[in-house]
Every structure is written in C-alpha cells, then in structure tokens.
Amino acid sequence: MPKTRPPYPPEFRSRLVELVRSGRKPEELAREFEPSAQSIRNWVRESGLQAGSSQEETSSTEREELQRLRRENRQLREEREILAKAAAWFAREADSIPPRSSNS
Fold first, then answer.
1. Phi, psi (5° rounding) for residue 79?
2. Does residue 20 contact residue 35 with C-beta atoms inside 8 Å?
C-alpha cells in the first residue's frame, strides 16, 4: 500500500511558492525539502490562478461564449447548405417544367 501523508500546511506551501517566484527552481527545492518538484509547480500554478481569479472568470466566460458561437456557426453553416441544396433543386425543377403558352 502506498504511504500517504497529511497535506502540507498552507504556510509551508506559500513559502515554497515565494521561493520559486524569487528565482529558485522547483527541482532544487524538492531536493532540499520533502515535496516533489511537480507538487511545487502545481502550488505555484494554483496560487497564480487564485491571485488572478477575476482573470480566470473572464476567460471561462469567454470560453463559454466561444463554445456558444461555434455551435451557432455550425448550425448556420448547416442551414446555409440546406438552403443552397433547396435552391438548386428548385432551379432544376423550374427548368424541367415547360413554360405555359399564352394561347388560350
């Protein structure tokens, strides 16, 4: 069974994040302290997201809008294709029906 340990205290995490931001490498800190370099990188990324949470909210709003616009764009293209096929069909039908004579 893998060993699990309790989560690192927030103060410890924030101190390591500060050290990375001051120029130290996560690998160097991982050798010096216990957490892995990847864990330290994750903490740095998380703290950046928390600091710029309004920016993240904006990007999630923009992401939702982009999805909506792509869906709408796909629907409009399908409708345009259907209308083009219908116009071509009506054009063929109009050519196949002989014109009526006005000699009544």
1. -65, -40
2. no
Total residues belonging to the chain: 104
pTM for this structure? Answer: 0.46
CA 13 – CA 28 distance, rounded (Å): 15
pLDDT along the chain (104 residues), means of 10: 78 92 92 90 85 62 91 97 94 74 59
Which two tokens mark 16? 């390591």
Q: What does the alpha-carbon distance between residue 80 and residue 59 come to, in Å, rounded to a whole number?
A: 31
Q: Where are the domains of the chain?
A: 10-95
Tell the residue number behind the tokens 């764009």, with chain if given.
73
